[in-house]
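tokens incoming
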């Protein structure tokens, strides 16, 4: 990116969102084991979720906990630099059941690309998560052009 900032300097980044059956909080290294367990249990489901079909993530062969930790540290660093925002999706019991990614498009930094996934055994959260995040992005974030595909 050149001079384009993903969010304005004075924008207060939301610390999370609570919706029907879930809550969001910034993803960090403290979520490593639970995040790893969540996505490795649902590789096929995630790869079939809107926005993930052609991304090659999650890797079909998985990755180690150490590799996952590096990935989470990268996302936390992006969050701290305000370069992108990744939230973990927790169910009402506090179990990690998914992730939400909010990043500028590589092709056009004026476009915000959003993707989310939930574990296969929590697929009933796909739609409520999508709808709540769509409203949240429109009401609480400064983005003008958001690309977030519905789950179905």
């Amino acid at each position: 990116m050149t001079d384009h900032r993903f969010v304005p300097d004075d924008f207060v980044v939301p610390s999370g969102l609570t919706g029907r059956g879930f809550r969001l909080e910034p993803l960090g290294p403290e979520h490593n084991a639970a995040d790893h367990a969540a996505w490795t249990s649902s590789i096929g489901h995630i790869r079939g979720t809107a926005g993930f079909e052609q991304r090659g993530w999650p890797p079909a062969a998985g990755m180690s906990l150490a590799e996952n930790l590096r990935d989470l540290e990268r996302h936390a660093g992006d969050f701290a630099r305000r370069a992108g925002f990744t939230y973990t999706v927790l169910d009402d019991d506090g179990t990690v059941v998914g992730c939400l990614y909010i990043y500028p498009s590589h092709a056009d930094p004026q476009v915000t690309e959003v993707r989310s996934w939930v574990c296969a055994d929590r697929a009933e959260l796909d739609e409520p998560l999508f709808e709540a995040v769509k409203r949240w992005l429109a009401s609480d974030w400064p983005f003008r052009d958001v690309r977030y595909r519905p789950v179905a």
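note: The chain has one domain: 17-147.
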